[in-house]
Amino acid sequence: MSLMKQGKISLDKFRHVVRDVVSQEPFTTRFANLSASGDRRGMIEMFVDVPHVTGLITNDSYRGKNEAQAAELYGVSLRATAQPDDEHANNETRTCNILTKALYAANADGRVFLDAICERARRSYNLRAYASCLRDCECMLALPASFYDDSAESVRYYVQRKKECLQLERECSRKFEPSSSKKHNNRGRTSSSSSSFSSSLVSSSGSALSPLGKRTVATPTVDGKPHTYLACCSDSVELRCDKIRGRHLVATRDIRPGAVLIVDRPFSFSTDAPALGRNCLHCHATLKLEDSVKIPCRNCQTVSFCTETCRREAWETYHRYECLIFDYFLEDFLSNECQTSRLLLAYRTTVAQALRGSAETKCVLNPDFLRYHANGNATNKDEDVDEECAELGSKKPYRPHDYRTVFQLETHCADMEPSANLVLTIEAIFLAKCLTHVLKKLDVICTKETFVSIAVAMLHHLQAINCNAYEIVESVYDEKTHVWEPRNVGGAIYTTVSLVNHSCYPNVVRHSYPNGVVVVRATRFIGKGCEMLDCYGPNFLSESRLVRRELLWKKYRFVCGCDACTQNWKFPPSETIALYKCRSCSEPMDSSSATGDAQVTSQTCARCGKVNDVRKIAKQLHKSIRMRVNAIAKMYQGNYRDAMPLLFEHAQFVNKHLAEPNIESVKTGQCIVQCYNSLGSTSVQ
What we know:
- By secondary structure, the chain is of the alpha+beta class.
């Protein structure tokens, strides 16, 4: 039966139906040959005339507004107000939650939406949640008068609500004014004479709130000078390329622990399904703290925003191209939890470059984008396109929003199993069908050739995402363990961070900041000429060499040759002190070279012949370890900034005197990571 006649179909069902049809000879052999040659266009074109593909028509698939439901919820909120409640604040909070549900169900051009947004703003003001009140006012005041009919009654009603919000906005602004003139003591806390309102400007994690109530976590800048060609990097690193490592980053000078090496912005990003209700779709700020509000999409009930600004920017750049078919991504999540973010990321990566236009101008297809995917062969690349990309990062600027940097990402197209490429090809065709459905609604004509190019691009991005996408995370504090645990929010393509190779014992760490920004810092000393190394997942502290190499080969198609793998470091490292380094040449000394008794011990370096007084080093080490212990005590008290200098000093000492691997380096690195977990994007359970 044609899929056209079955009406709406999920991606999961489409995937299974098409696989069953094409899993026959000679189709399978022909596809395997195209897969082995890296011919993406050939793989896509094989499916174009398959009946189940030609017959597939994607329809609108989203949770639209329900005015009747909205009116009922608004009525419930009014009745809840009339009920007596000794705990007034709790009752107000519950009522605000009901109003939020009404807002999501209501049409933005209806009275219920106006009533609910104004009522929620008033209640936030009564609760002294002035930041939340301001954001609701911003949302209402952004509603254009053109939404409503020209009748005198409608105009009068709209103007009345607008005046109410303007008044609330003025009142909230007055509450914020005193906060700028407060005197602070030497620990950065507001003096006792300050009003209680000032405390609402700072979150539990120390991040400030802007006058409109949006959380502003300070994003670091790179240490040293910005790189001339690598726009997101410090000048302490440079891009190199060879046949073994491919493109990679090395240190141009000695780098200390904690140094900020990369501040990268995503080319595109997506949100995991479980995070849609707890995080802003656009900047991924948490919506679970007391000072947050949820701003709904004007078209669907599914996604949330922290401010009207985020809602508008998301709509203009990507959400208007996905809103009508968003439930296709959610349906697939039910059958495979890892799918939603990956598929949505590939879709948005294509949208980001394939389309031009704004909410005010007509959307058109980008001819340069179509040219990039006209060839579609991973092995026989287009010479003109390849030449455009060749010198990025070395002689030409390498910028995070330059599509050429995305196009250069490794896909391993020809190295993948044909069965894996088959699944990705089917997914790419489905996503292309979804996009052409949306474009038709925007009066953009897509020919068969255009559809093929869009599907080729989708396939290219799905393959690149498999081995280049990174998680967007937020840290959640565990009161029992005193540990900041990472929680996934979504995924993103970071073209600069993707230049960093893997090690099972990395010397850098990534942390997420608002708006998808990722900050890469050194966790250990990195010597001049040494490579910056990230961890793609398997770490020698938790997995054996065999398991690590198997995981890395299956996903990234390389056999790991890091120190932990080539030397087969045991996990976990021994709690005993590791080999000391010679103070003269820094080479590890064999413990068998020790001389003297237990009180006076020395070791002779086999390389340079220098005699080292290891008893003195041992005393200094124990003193340095006490610094780490003191740092941990400060971390338990929440004083992460005070703990970091102690950890950095101890890390420098360990690097100078102890050979890798050693337990002190591991423990110190883990503490440094915990400190930075507390400074990036954070949330609550």
